[in-house]
Write a structure and sequence with these properties.
The structure is a single chain. This protein is an alpha/beta fold and 336 residues long. The chain contains eleven helices and twelve strands. The strands form two sheets. Strands 11-10-8-9-7-6-12 form a seven-stranded antiparallel sheet, with helices on both faces. Strands 3-2-1-4-5 form a five-stranded parallel sheet, with helices on both faces. It is elongated, with a radius of gyration of 25 Å.
């Protein structure tokens, strides 16, 4: 029996890929890769259980962020380096291939389905750049692509693979019903990098931070983003979940030097200031600005402008400070 590593999100294409291989007697191990911008591992785990396959989950490291900042093969319509991202995932799959002593890697890619990464020449490029050339199979489009080593070696029957192309899903849905994959998932990229509204936040981070970490990416998703100067920015909670998340980020072991502002006697947003250093000359001025920003984005009915106080946290130090409305007008830029 041959063995395959399948890049597995739990979406329709990866479900079909597993079923197609299982019908040829292939032992399948699923691989789900989590990135700072997309995590579907729990959904993938549930669907893997339904298909009766083991699932390996791997996370990208900070080198993935360096790739996103400067992709070799460029971006799509947002800040989505889809080709480079696919290469990284296939490289991880190659590592699992060796660990599991498997024969080949398979993906649910469909030729022409995604214009930024699934044209035929792009599929060939991904196979070559990942080091899987010849051992990377796309069962749903195999008949419109060149034969792979598993097909040539008799591990797969090419005639039982498919020739789907383009963006339509009707034929794939019909196949899913024939192969009894269960509930058919709705199409969704799920990746923040594909969202145009997310792009300004990430571009601002890359412009002002030479070596971003996963922590920086997590901050981007925690509320309104405001640039104070080239060295200092803040994230301001839009709701209770954001505010709690900002406190968690402040306390995390991998956090950058930052200052947390929490309203003390009024109902307003928690704000995390990244890059504020108590040792600098302008720290007091920045604290005044921080307080004014907290009030700027607070409902005026929720505080007394003469007595509004917030808690300042940096390191293990906690102090209280009065908030003044707009002491430094215009000295910031809302990124989104």
């Amino acid at each position: 029996m041959s063995k395959a590593i399948v890049l597995f999100s739990g979406g329709l294409d990866s479900l079909l890929t597993v079923r197609v291989l299982q019908r040829q007697g292939v032992e399948v191990v699923g691989l789900n890769v989590r990135t700072p911008f997309h995590d579907c591992s729990e959904h993938a785990r549930l669907r893997a259980e339904q298909l009766g396959i083991p699932l390996r989950v791997r996370e990208t490291d900070d080198s993935y962020l360096a790739m996103v900042a400067a992709p070799r093969f460029g971006y799509g319509k947002a800040v989505n380096p889809c080709i480079d991202c696919r290469v990284v995932m296939c490289q991880i799959a190659k590592q699992i291939l060796d660990e599991e002593n498997a024969d080949f890697v398979a993906t649910g890619e469909v030729a022409g389905q995604r214009p930024n990464s699934q044209k035929q020449h792009q599929l060939a490029l991904i196979a070559r750049e990942s080091g899987l050339d010849g051992r990377l199979v796309r069962p749903l489009s195999a008949k419109v692509l060149g034969p792979t080593s598993p097909e040539n070696d008799g591990l797969l029957d090419r005639e039982k693979l498919y020739a789907y192309t383009g963006r339509g899903r009707l034929q794939l849905i019909a196949l899913a019903r024939r192969l009894e994959v269960g509930k058919i998932p709705q199409p969704s990229t799920g990746c923040l990098l594909c969202e145009k509204s997310y792009a300004p936040r990430l571009i601002d981070l890359f412009r002002h931070c030479d070596s971003p970490k996963t922590w920086d990416i997590d901050v981007l998703a925690a509320g309104r983003q405001i640039r104070i100067n080239p060295s200092v920015k803040c994230a301001m909670g839009r709701n209770e979940a954001h505010c709690l998340r900002l406190q968690e980020l402040f306390e995390r072991s991998d956090a950058r030097a930052s200052v947390l502002l929490v309203p003390e006697n009024f109902n307003g947003p928690t704000t995390l200031f990244v890059g504020m250093n108590p040792e600098t000359e302008d720290f007091e001025r920045l604290l005044d600005l921080a307080g004014s920003l907290t009030l700027r984005f607070t409902n005026p009915e929720k505080y007394d402008s003469e007595n509004a106080v917030f808690q300042v946290r940096h390191g293990s130090v906690r102090t209280l400070r009065k908030a003044h409305p707009d002491p430094v007008a215009g000295d910031y830029r809302v990124i989104e």
